[in-house]
């Protein structure tokens, strides 16, 4: 079961088609494995269709907006009773597999520092401003202490990591910004692989890491 999810406003932006392609990919990967959030998006899609059919001059009041959010939360409480089935013999291909075309562990990883390896896939999203990076933290390894110069959206693709906010397992979703200073640790017996979308480079905060900041782009 996933513990960390996109917030309702982010799901609303996804449903409305307002997210960039990399951010939408992160949401789709989470939705593929999270029934709660799929239920929320289904509700948002339905409400959006109803609003599109209304007169274009109609304004959405704050009361209506709060009602929509309450409806979404109510429907999500019932989503645990829903079961998604896949026909026998049907192989499910994730959006990331379609994008990469190969297994995560077979990718041409580049060791960045210590226990961290990276693969920049920004070029797979032409015209996008954000940096899109796959990151692999070796099992039991630690990433350098860092904060963020902008916003970082991350979904866990394999394994798990822990920081001061808790444990993030496979398909969990997290958004970090300048207020977050953390040192992720890979937990479990396999490498932790994440997909991150960054609006700006990270900023190392450890004693040694600060000396490397001028070289991080």
Features:
alpha+beta, 2 domains, Jelly Rolls, disordered C terminus, three-stranded antiparallel beta sheet, Arc Repressor Mutant, subunit A, 11 strands, 217 residues, 23% strand, six-stranded antiparallel beta sheet, globular
Your description of this structure?
The protein is 30% helix and 23% strand. With 217 residues, the protein is α+β, with helices and mostly antiparallel strands. The protein has two domains: 8-81, Arc Repressor Mutant, subunit A (Orthogonal Bundle); 95-215, Sandwich (Jelly Rolls), CATH 2.60.120. The strands form three sheets. A six-stranded antiparallel beta sheet has the order 1-2-3-10-5-8, covered by helices on one side. A three-stranded antiparallel beta sheet has the order 7-6-9, with no helix packed on it. It has a two-stranded antiparallel sheet with strand order 4-11. A hairpin with a 2-residue loop joins strand 1 and strand 2 (116-120). Helix 1 packs across helix 3 and helix 3 packs antiparallel against helix 4 (62-78). The relative contact order is 0.16.
What is the fold's blueprint, element by element?
Elements: H1 8-15, H2 21-31, H3 35-53, H4 62-78, H5 95-100, E1 110-113, E2 116-120, E3 131-137, E4 146-148, E5 152-158, E6 160-163, E7 166-168, E8 173-176, E9 185-187, E10 192-198, E11 202-204, H6 209-212
Antiparallel strand pairs: 1-2, 2-3, 3-10, 4-11, 5-8, 5-10, 6-7, 6-9
């Amino acid at each position: 079961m996933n513990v960390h999810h996109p917030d309702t406003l982010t799901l609303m932006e996804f449903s409305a088609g307002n997210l960039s392609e990399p951010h939408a990919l992160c949401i789709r990967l989470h939705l593929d494995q999270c029934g709660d959030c799929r239920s929320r998006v289904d509700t948002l899609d339905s409400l959006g269709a109803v609003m599109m059919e209304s007169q274009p001059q109609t304004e959405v009041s704050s009361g209506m907006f709060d009602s929509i959010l309450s409806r979404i939360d109510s429907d999500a409480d019932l989503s645990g009773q829903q079961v998604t089935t896949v026909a026998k013999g049907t192989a499910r291909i994730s959006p990331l597999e379609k994008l990469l075309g190969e297994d995560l562990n077979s990718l041409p990883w580049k060791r960045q520092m210590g226990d961290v390896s990276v693969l920049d896939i920004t070029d797979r999203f032409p015209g996008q401003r954000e940096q899109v990076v796959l990151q692999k933290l070796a099992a039991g390894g630690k990433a350098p202490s860092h904060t963020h110069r902008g916003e970082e959206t991350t979904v866990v693709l394999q394994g798990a990591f822990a920081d001061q906010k808790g444990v993030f397992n496979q398909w969990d979703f997290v958004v970090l910004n300048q207020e977050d200073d953390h040192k992720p640790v890979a937990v479990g017996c396999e490498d932790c692989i994440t997909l991150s979308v960054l609006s700006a480079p990270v900023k190392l905060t450890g004693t040694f890491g600060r000396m490397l900041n001028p070289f991080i782009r």
